[in-house]
Write a structure and sequence with these properties.
It is a single chain. The chain is α/β, with parallel strands linked by helices. 47% of the residues lie in helices and 10% in strands. The longest helix is centred in the C-terminal third of the chain and has 15 residues, at 204-218.
Length: 316
């Protein structure tokens, strides 16, 4: 199972927003629900708002910041912060995300993706990808917009929509909206380019391998179950379930998959901790939201921050 990063959340949300019946071969009654924002949606979400995910209070030098474990997909009913998150946002000077997906830089980078040279992958592989793309009711023409390996990873994130899990309702987007409404600046802990480099292949052969790996997961019915298990565990703040993710996800078997997991999580955590520490040391109280799987393992962010002299206390 691929893990989507925030840079892809915006790309996926744009794809999902334009999704509709993709052709005559699709049963129009079988299309997943389209995500949309409305006053009614946010009002309902606020009525059922509760704390979801994972929150730590981190203190050093007499200042208190917060660390939040986020989820890159969500449900419509999750689009309002719970009481502890709302309170924490009211006590900080800035929201820090892996990447601010609404920034001009992010928008520009996404537009530039369409201009990259197309990948040459085996025709049978492309046909499998096209079949799944159309089955998710995505416009077939958009499959050619940008690197095919990125589209395959994007499709992984969209496959949960029939279960109600949509990247358009990701907690990063919810937090961004809440921060903007409260007048908080939104900052980035990583660069847009570094996020894209996590998924862009070096050549056609690597792109083909990435697409094949994604299709193998997409074609397994169990993958949807695993995706739902991850999201539900996040919603119920079950950190032990996330900590054992690699044992039950059925997604880390090969050397390539192990290397990808290390690159996505362990290798990035020191840099993310650097960013949080730098903002805090500058005098800002920050609410740092990073993907929840970064809160697990030997290089978990709470562990790294504690080693840097922060008093770390889990709130929920």
């Amino acid at each position: 199972m691929f893990m989507m990063k925030p840079m892809l959340v915006l790309l996926v949300a744009l794809l999902a927003a334009s999704a509709g019946p993709a052709g005559a071969q699709v049963d129009k009654t079988d299309c997943p629900p389209s995500a949309s924002y409305s006053r009614e949606l946010f009002a309902k979400a606020e009525q059922q708002a509760r704390d979801r995910g994972f929150l730590w209070r981190i203190e050093r030098g007499g200042r208190v910041s917060y660390l939040f474990g986020s989820m890159h997909v969500g449900k419509a009913g999750w689009m309002s912060p719970g009481p502890s998150v709302r309170s924490a946002l009211g006590q900080v000077d800035a929201l820090a995300l892996e990447v601010d997906m609404t920034s001009a830089e992010a928008q520009q980078q996404l537009q530039q993706l369409a201009g990259l040279a197309p990948r040459e992958i085996p025709q049978p592989l492309r046909q499998r990808l096209e079949r799944l793309w159309v089955a998710e009711c995505l416009p077939l023409a958009q499959l050619n917009n940008g690197p095919v390996e990125l589209q395959a990873v994007t499709l992984m994130a969209l496959m949960g929509r029939r279960q109600g899990f949509d990247p358009s309702y990701a907690s990063e987007l919810m937090l961004t909206m809440a921060a903007r409404a409260g007048g908080l600046p939104v900052l980035s802990l990583e660069s847009v380019r570094s996020q894209l480099d996590l998924f862009l292949a070096a050549d056609d052969a690597e792109a083909s391998e990435t697409v094949a790996q994604a299709l193998e997961q997409l074609e397994k019915p169990e993958t949807r179950v695993m995706q739902e298990k991850l999201a539900v565990a996040w919603a119920h703040s079950e950190l032990d379930v996330l900590a054992s993710y690699q044992a039950w996800c059925d997604c880390v078997h090969t050397d390539r998959e192990r290397a990808d997991m290390k690159k996505l999580l362990d290798d990035r955590n020191p840099g993310l901790a650097d960013g949080i520490e730098r903002l805090h040391a500058s005098g800002q109280r920050v609410f740092a939201a990073v993907g929840a799987l970064h809160m697990t393992g030997q290089t978990a962010l709470p562990r790294l921050l504690a080693a840097r002299g922060f008093a770390v206390e889990r709130v929920f």
